[in-house]
Automatic annotation (TrEMBL), chain A:
<dbReference type="InterPro" id="IPR049469">
    <property type="entry name" value="RRP40_KH-I"/>
</dbReference>
<dbReference type="GO" id="GO:0071051">
    <property type="term" value="P:poly(A)-dependent snoRNA 3'-end processing"/>
</dbReference>
<dbReference type="Pfam" id="PF18311">
    <property type="entry name" value="Rrp40_N"/>
</dbReference>
<keyword id="KW-0963">Cytoplasm</keyword>
<keyword id="KW-0698">rRNA processing</keyword>
<keyword id="KW-0271">Exosome</keyword>
<feature type="domain" description="K Homology">
    <location>
        <begin position="193"/>
        <end position="240"/>
    </location>
</feature>
<dbReference type="GO" id="GO:0000467">
    <property type="term" value="P:exonucleolytic trimming to generate mature 3'-end of 5.8S rRNA from tricistronic rRNA transcript (SSU-rRNA, 5.8S rRNA, LSU-rRNA)"/>
</dbReference>
<dbReference type="GO" id="GO:0005730">
    <property type="term" value="C:nucleolus"/>
</dbReference>
Automatic annotation (TrEMBL), chain B:
<dbReference type="GO" id="GO:0000176">
    <property type="term" value="C:nuclear exosome (RNase complex)"/>
</dbReference>
<dbReference type="Pfam" id="PF01138">
    <property type="entry name" value="RNase_PH"/>
</dbReference>
<dbReference type="InterPro" id="IPR050590">
    <property type="entry name" value="Exosome_comp_Rrp42_subfam"/>
</dbReference>
<keyword id="KW-0698">rRNA processing</keyword>
<feature type="region of interest" description="Disordered">
    <location>
        <begin position="319"/>
        <end position="338"/>
    </location>
</feature>
<dbReference type="GO" id="GO:0035925">
    <property type="term" value="F:mRNA 3'-UTR AU-rich region binding"/>
</dbReference>
<dbReference type="GO" id="GO:0034475">
    <property type="term" value="P:U4 snRNA 3'-end processing"/>
</dbReference>
<keyword id="KW-0271">Exosome</keyword>
<feature type="domain" description="Exoribonuclease phosphorolytic">
    <location>
        <begin position="189"/>
        <end position="255"/>
    </location>
</feature>
Length: 273, 435
């Protein structure tokens, strides 16, 4: 199985956007408070605050720890606010984030997304990435593109690109090259496959380093997947029927637990498709 | 807001799949998606789910002056709304091309086919006729809105009951649902539309296209038929050239589909009728997987109760005192009972057969009136294990009788199990025996 996608800029596993990796120097208390609630369902509006009035247990050292707040957690003063509903997760040594199952995509810097070209103007493409606004992609942001050498992109093509500007005040901007000027898998793709829309949670599960879902998919049949962090997945397998099966599978295992999913895959392997 | 654009690769893939006779969701070329028809609590409200496409139709009526050219016929008015709820491509208020097209097709399918007897809607020729208005709202668009809308509209029309009217000389009396049972409309036949999508210049056809297939199709053929194999309307859009054999083949397929769908509608209507008769949970509540319905009040209805006083007081005396937290329904004066608690708002619906007519908060003053509805005699359930105030109205004639059972619960307010036609409850005493 060939898998193409990008990694977030900050170097941690996909799911952490640069802008939300805010390291906070907090007291040890906050850390332990968060640690206790790992695995619980939190709602927007929940907060973790610790001020200087909190007492420190005697056994803990007085050193403060850095705490990395991932997606869904936001820092406001000395409080940590939850901005998304979902389950609190923790990764050693100090990363916390909220895992949610939403389908609406909010563009964030550094993420690799699949976009559909909607318009071509003199020097910029307009690309729809599923956010509130269409993103712009300059002609020169392709590998080996110069003023004379225009990239071969038509309206309606699929692109894998990375967001370089994504905040609530400006229109998002994409590029198809990485920092050193190489394409690195990005650019136009997509003949012969099918594009489907899934939830963001499924996308993160597909891209996680040791993903059960990917392992199960590998057992089925050879296929090619391009995963965009905006909830779009492009699939292609040997035959049309297999591609359809794969697309329907991915859409249905969005809402399944791991055992249910494995049961489904097993039934598929035994039965004919 | 614009809808997400369809990429070239999706378009190519869907066309290639269709050439290999494969559809995106695994259906065969002539298969419909799963159709689910439910009815709401009011008469004339119908929800239709066609796969993910969801549509609601509501029928209402009003007395108006008839048209001058047709003084003894009633008026039918159709309106289909594309709500932004259905798709980001639909904008509120704007009459898009699709909306005009769907409205026109719905009108042709239902009005021009004369499926409703408009002369029976006349009250006073030249002065008063009934105007029947059908509003169809789209709730979710996953393709093939036309078929879903036609099924919803005809289902709602079959389900609807209009108030009874009597004329004495010059006087016209319109009876409210409590006084006399409302009457169903007289419907001759049920026209249902079936849509065929054509691809590759008419080479391939699909029945019931989903949204992505609709975006890729070349043209659409819509045939409205009834189960007696009469074609009510044919419409072809998209500018494709169709051969005579293709149209004949489509009409044969349509007749098969229409008879299946008509069966489904009739079954759903029958289920709804039995559920209402049994006083069971039917209507809106069934279609939402939820335990609570908030805030549906019914008006006070005057009810005839001749000997309720004696029966009630005898039962009250024999029953044990209810727990203190909940006041038992008191019968201060024969014929008037106070049900429910003031200012308590718990609408729990545990296991009773009730959905909407809980008037809980009507207890202020002594003016509240018990609402009685009727259940079948065969269904007398004396639940002796609980402290129950059973108020039974036994009519002398053999028609269906309904019983109101007031349960003062320990945790909740007393509930009355009213049949779902609670508003028309008392008026059903003279209901004709249903077969």
């Amino acid at each position: 199985m060939i898998l193409r996608s990008g990694r977030g800029r900050c170097g941690c596993s996909s799911g952490f956007r640069d802008i939300s990796c805010q390291a906070t120097r907090s007291s040890v208390r906050m850390f332990s408070v968060l640690k206790e609630r790992v695995g619980e369902i939190l709602l927007p509006g929940d907060e973790f605050c610790c001020g200087p009035q909190d007492t420190l247990p005697l056994t803990d050292s007085g050193k403060s720890e850095r705490l990395v707040a991932g997606p869904g957690l936001r820092r406001s003063g000395d409080r940590l606010l939850v901005s998304r509903s979902g389950v609190l997760r923790h990764k050693e040594p100090n990363k916390f984030w909220i895992e949610s199952q939403q389908r609406r995509y909010v563009p964030a810097k550094g993420e690799t997304v699949i976009g559909v070209v909607t318009a071509k103007s003199s020097d910029v493409f307009k690309v729809d990435i599923g956010g509130s606004e269409a993103a712009s992609l300059s002609y020169l942001a392709f590998e080996g593109a110069t003023k004379r050498n225009r990239p071969n992109v038509q309206v309606g093509d699929l692109l894998l690109a990375q967001l370089v500007v994504a905040n609530k005040d400006m229109e998002p901007e994409l590029v198809c090259i990485d920092g050193s000027g190489r394409a690195n898998g990005m650019g136009v793709f997509g003949t012969g496959g099918l594009l489907i829309k899934v939830s963001l949670g499924l996308v993160r599960r597909l891209l996680a380093p040791r993903s059960d879902l990917r392992a199960d998919l590998e057992q089925l049949f050879p296929c090619e997947l391009v995963v965009g962090m905006n909830g779009r997945v492009w699939v292609r397998a040997g035959a049309v029927q297999q591609t359809l099966v794969l697309a329907n599978l991915l859409q249905s295992c969005d809402a399944m637990t791991a055992p249910q999913r494995q049961q489904l895959f097993r039934r598929l392997q035994q039965g004919a498709f | 807001m614009k809808d997400t654009p369809l990429s070239n690769c999706e378009r190519d893939f869907i066309l290639k799949a269709i050439e290999e006779k494969k559809r995106l969701d695994g259906r065969q070329t002539y298969d419909y998606r799963k159709i689910k028809i439910t009815f709401g609590t009011d008469y004339g409200c119908c929800f239709v789910d066609l796969g993910q496409t969801r549509v609601m139709a509501q029928v209402s009526c009003e007395l108006v002056v008839p048209k001058e050219s047709r003084p003894n016929e009633g008026i039918m008015f159709f309106n289909l709304e594309l709500s932004p709820m259905a798709s980001p491509a639909f904008e509120q208020g704007r009459q898009s091309e699709l909306s005009v097209k769907l409205n026109r097709q719905l009108e042709r399918c239902l009005r021009n086919s004369k499926c409703i007897d408009t002369e029976s809607l006349c009250v006073v020729s030249g002065e008063k006729v009934w105007q029947i208005r059908v509003d169809v709202h789209t709730l979710n668009n996953d393709g093939n809105l036309m078929d879903a809308a036609s099924v919803a509209a005809i289902g709602a029309l079959c389900h609807f009951r209009r108030p009874d009217v009597s004329i004495q000389g010059e006087e016209v009396t319109v009876y409210s649902p409590e006084e006399r049972d409302p009457i169903p409309l007289s419907i001759y036949h049920m026209p249902i539309s079936v849509s065929f999508a054509f691809f590759q210049q008419g080479t391939f056809l699909l029945v019931d296209p989903c949204e992505r297939e609709e975006r890729v199709m070349d043209g659409l053929l819509m045939i409205a038929m009834n189960k007696h194999r009469e074609i009510c309307s044919i419409q072809s859009s998209g500018g494709i050239m169709l051969l005579k054999e293709q149209v004949m083949r489509c009409s044969k397929i349509a007749s098969v589909k229409v008879s299946e769908i008509t069966e489904l509608i009739n079954k759903a209507l029958l289920n709804d009728k039995t559920a209402r008769k049994a006083g069971g949970r039917c209507g809106f509540a069934e279609s939402i997987p939820q335990e609570r319905i908030t805030a549906l009040k019914t008006d006070q209805t005057a009810v005839e109760m001749t000997d309720v006083g004696e029966t009630a007081s005898s039962i009250v005396q024999t029953a044990e005192a209810p727990p203190q937290t909940v006041p038992s329904p008191s019968v201060p004066v024969p014929g008037v009972g106070q049900v429910g608690e003031v200012l308590r708002n718990s609408w729990g619906l545990e296991e009773e057969e009730e959905e909407e007519e809980e008037d809980g908060g009507e207890g202020s003053g002594g003016d509240s009136v018990e609402e009685l509805t009727k259940m079948d005699v065969e269904q007398h359930q004396e639940v002796k294990s609980r402290t129950v105030d059973v108020v039974e109205i036994l009519d002398s004639d053999e028609e269906e009788e309904e019983v109101v059972i007031l349960y003062p619960e320990t945790t909740k307010k007393p509930k009355n199990t009213a049949s779902s036609s609670g508003q028309k409850g008392a008026g059903t005493s003279r209901k004709q025996k249903k077969k």
